[in-house]
Design goal:
With 354 residues, the chain is α/β, with parallel strands linked by helices. 47% of the residues lie in helices and 14% in strands. The strands form 2 sheets. Strands 2-3-8-7-4-6 form a 6-stranded mixed sheet. The protein has a two-stranded parallel ribbon with strand order 1-5.
Length: 354
C-alpha cells in the first residue's frame, strides 16, 4: 500500500494542529494537556461552533450554570482546590485564555480541568434533553444535516470566488441516512449489537480535488459547524494523511509524527470488511443542534429547562481525494464487494459456519 501523503503542519496555528490531531487520531479532548487560544475572539468562535453565543444573555446564563456545576463537582467529589481566578462565572471567555496560558502551568492545568468538566456536564445535559423533548429522529437528523449542508455549500461557493480564482478544494459530497436494512446488517456484524452504537445513521461522504485538500476541508468544517471537543474517541480512521513539519516544530509535533508517519496507515477504528487497498479518512462527531423552536412549542418544564436547549446528533464523515475515490470504487475495494463480504460475515455469525 502506498505511503500516506505528507501534510505540512508548519503554516497552521497551534489550535488548528490540535484539531487535526484530535480528528485524525480520534483522541479524547479530556486527554489534551492544554488549549491554544490566543484571544477572546477565538474563544467566542469556539463557543459558537458549540452553539453558544455569549452575546445572548440566555446562552451566557447557561454557560455560567454549567461552570458552577463543574466547579462544584471538582471541589466536592475530587476535593480539588480551584484558584480564585477560575471561580468567577462572569468571566467564561477568560477560562479559555487561562487554559491556553503556558506561563502559569498550575493555573493552566486547573483551567483545563474546569473546561473539561464543563464539556462533560454540557454533553450529559444535551443527551438527557433528548429524553425530555418531543422531537422525532427525522426532525433531529434534519437539524444536523442543515448545519453540515450550509457549511459545505459555503465552502464550494466562497473559495471558488476568491481573487486568486482558485477552485474549491471540495469536489463533491453526498449526505444521507443509513437504511434500516443496512443498520441490521451492520449490527449483526458487530460484537456490540446495540443500535445506539451505530455511529453512521447520518453520514457524509466528501471528495476533495487533491489529497492535501482533505486538511483544508477538515479545518473548514471544524471552524464552522463541527466541535472538535465532541469527536468520538476511538472512532477515527486515517489512511491518507501523514504529517511533516519544520525543524522548529519537530519537538511539539513529535507525538503526532510518531502516530501518523511511522506506519503506512493509521487506524483507531475498525474496517473489517473493507478491501485491502481501500483507503479513507473517517471520523464521527456529536454535532450540537439548537432545540429552542421545539421546546417553545411545548411550554416550560422545570427539569427540562435546567438542561439547556442544545442536543446532540452523531454524524459520521468519510473524506477522500478524487484519485483515492476512483481506486476505492474499483475491484475488491468497491462498495459492492464490501457489501458481499459483510453479508457473508453475517451469515457465518448467524449460522455458525466457519
Amino acid at each position: 500500500m502506498p505511503s500516506p501523503s505528507l501534510l505540512d503542519l508548519s503554516p497552521l496555528s497551534p489550535q488548528d494542529r490540535t484539531i487535526l490531531k484530535v480528528v485524525l487520531k480520534g483522541r479524547s479532548v479530556i486527554d489534551s494537556p492544554r488549549l491554544h487560544m490566543a484571544s477572546a475572539d477565538e474563544a467566542r468562535e469556539f463557543l459558537k461552533v458549540n452553539e453558544f453565543d455569549v452575546s445572548k444573555p440566555k446562552d451566557l446564563e447557561r454557560l455560567q450554570s454549567i461552570h458552577l456545576e463543574a466547579v462544584s463537582y471538582l471541589q466536592r467529589e475530587l476535593k480539588l482546590e480551584i484558584a480564585r481566578e477560575l471561580l468567577d462565572s462572569g468571566k467564561i471567555l477568560n477560562l479559555f485564555l487561562l487554559a491556553s496560558n503556558a506561563k502559569d502551568k498550575a493555573l493552566q492545568k486547573q483551567a483545563c480541568a474546569v473546561l473539561k468538566t464543563m464539556n462533560i456536564v454540557n454533553h450529559i445535559d444535551g443527551r438527557e434533553l433528548l429524553y425530555n423533548c418531543p422531537i422525532s429522529l427525522r426532525d433531529l437528523f434534519s437539524l444536523a444535516e442543515d448545519k453540515v449542508e450550509r457549511s459545505l455549500s459555503a465552502l464550494q461557493r466562497n473559495v471558488g470566488a476568491t481573487s486568486e480564482g482558485r477552485e474549491s478544494p471540495l469536489l463533491r459530497y453526498t449526505g444521507g441516512r443509513k437504511p434500516k436494512e443496512s443498520v441490521v446488517t451492520k449490527l449483526l456484524c458487530k460484537r456490540e449489537t446495540i443500535a445506539a452504537q451505530v455511529y453512521d445513521r447520518v453520514r457524509y461522504r466528501i471528495v476533495t480535488r487533491k489529497r492535501e485538500d482533505i486538511a483544508v476541508v477538515l479545518l473548514h468544517l471544524f471552524r464552522t459547524v463541527l466541535p472538535f471537543n465532541y469527536v468520538i474517541p476511538g472512532a477515527s480512521v486515517n489512511q491518507l494523511l501523514a504529517t511533516a513539519g519544520s525543524e522548529r516544530l519537530k519537538k511539539n509535533l513529535m507525538s503526532l509524527k510518531k502516530a501518523l508517519s511511522k506506519t503506512s496507515w493509521t487506524s483507531t477504528g475498525t474496517m473489517e470488511y473493507s478491501g485491502r487497498n481501500y483507503k479513507v479518512c473517517k471520523f464521527v462527531v456529536d454535532i450540537p443542534v439548537r432545540m429552542d423552536n421545539f421546546l417553545a412549542q411545548t411550554g416550560g418544564a422545570p427539569y427540562r429547562d435546567s438542561l439547556g436547549t442544545i442536543a446532540y446528533v452523531l454524524v459520521e464523515f468519510q473524506i477522500v481525494d478524487e484519485e483515492t475515490d476512483a481506486a476505492n470504487n474499483a475491484g475488491e475495494s468497491s462498495h459492492e464487494k464490501y457489501k458481499i463480504r459483510q453479508k457473508r460475515g453475517v451469515l457465518r455469525r448467524l449460522t455458525g459456519r466457519p
